[in-house]
Design brief:
By secondary structure, this protein is an all-alpha fold. The chain has 13 helices and no strands. The chain is globular and about 70 Å long. The termini are far apart.
């Protein structure tokens, strides 16, 4: 079952999406949704995304088969973990592949805050309070973000942060009070499985490393193709990837140098590409 906070979030999301769709349809801008769906379709059809989905689904199948993630509660929480835990990590790796440290990001999950965060998210208010809480917190976060962007409104940033801090403190007190009232929950195996479910994200470390390397390969390939006649057919594409792999392998430092080299130099042949990549090894 969904807890009351999850239900409140789903309700507000439904209201927002319905209102947005109604407003755009009324203005004759429903093609915006069509364009959005087309963008998602193109993204989903990208080879890297296909491999990403295959890895995620394959890993879930193994976890289910080995009875690690079974039952509606765990499956629901695991899906939430993928949507709100893994996908933001994937986005960060894909957009900041040059600066992100995948190992630090992944092993940062192993921290004491797993326990209090789990308790806060598990022991929630009733639905009516959660509906108000989700709305108010969302509005306050949007106002704080707006105040950061607009210098003339920065004076209200600190008071808004104080309000958010007070709300968070009340949520923490209520959650821990409910936890101690229902202390017998710790006798359940599901309780501990749900608490440390986040650690399963570590199993996606190979995927995140692959995505970082793949982004380097893709950027190098795009630059080579843009500046030369290479990569115009399948054979040429594989040749570029093979030359790159033979010289740089999966070494991030060498791949970074290779990106800089192909950005500065115009390549006309595979031999020239080979010579450039050899300088990075």
């Amino acid at each position: 079952m969904f807890n009351t906070r999850e239900v409140a979030i789903l309700i507000w999301m439904g209201i927002f999406i319905s209102y947005a769709f109604y407003t755009l349809t009324k203005k004759g801008d429903e093609k915006y949704f069509t364009g959005l769906l087309e963008s998602f379709k193109r993204l989903a059809n990208h080879p890297i995304m296909i491999l990403t989905f295959v890895y995620i689904v394959g890993l879930f199948y193994l976890l289910y088969e080995f009875k690690i993630v079974v039952g509606w509660e765990l499956i629901k929480d695991y899906v939430k973990l993928i949507l709100f835990g893994l996908f933001p990590m994937i986005f960060k790796v894909s957009s900041k592949y040059k600066s992100v440290n995948v190992f630090e990001m992944a092993f940062g999950l192993v921290k004491f805050s797993i326990v209090p965060i789990f308790i806060i998210n598990e022991y929630t208010f009733n639905l009516f309070v959660e509906l108000i809480l989700v709305f108010v917190v969302t509005m306050l976060v949007l106002l704080v973000t707006f105040a950061e962007i607009k210098p003339e409104y920065r004076s209200v940033k600190n008071p808004l942060n104080w309000v958010l801090g007070i709300i968070f403190l009340l949520v923490v007190v209520f959650a821990f009070r409910n936890f101690f009232v229902n202390i017998d929950d710790v006798k359940s195996i599901v309780f501990w499985e749900k608490m440390f479910l986040e650690l399963l994200l570590l199993l996606h470390l190979p995927l995140l490393l692959f995505l970082q390397i793949a982004m380097y390969y893709e950027q190098i390939f795009i630059r080579v193709k843009f500046k030369s006649q290479l990569g115009k057919n399948i054979k040429s594409k594989f040749s570029i990837v093979w030359v790159l792999f033979r010289n740089c392998h999966f070494n991030v430092n060498n791949l970074e140098k290779a990106v800089n080299q192909v950005t500065r130099n115009r390549v006309q042949s595979l031999q020239e590409l080979e010579d450039i990549f050899k300088e990075t090894a």
